[in-house]
Write a structure and sequence with these properties.
This protein is an alpha+beta fold. It has five helices and four strands; from the N terminus they run H-E-H-H-E-E-H-E-H.
Amino acid sequence: MARYGACQPSLHLGGRSSGLRGVSSWWSNICLLGDDREATGDWFSNGATRVIGNGRSTQFWHDLWCGPTLLRDRFPRLFQLSFQVDGRVGDLGAWEGNVWVWDLRWRRLLFNDLLVVVTRHPGVDREDAWSWTLSKDGCYTVKSAYSFLIKGLSAMGTP
């Protein structure tokens, strides 16, 4: 941020980035976290995932929070039938005692495997957060990003 300024508003804060001309591809990818339409390879999103807390800042269909694939891509027909395409994880269910009960609403009655995939549920005492999957402690380091990129380039046969 000291070199290029803040991503305003950044995707991981619920907005869309703007003014990324003239910045490094690394900073562009960080600002475009999860948005493969404009990122120059989206390498950064391969190492980042959402850790669900209360689910209030994580979109159910549009954020990576439940496995390596967006739910809208894994279940495209269900996504099209959902009344809650812009819903947040924490808004699509409620606690009943100590059990999280999903309240997914469809344009028609469905029986599907989606509930099997979204068995993780929001926590009650913490906010949603990002986690860096390429390090054991979940924290991003430049070293882990470089190692990931170098291994990826080596696998593609790029010197």
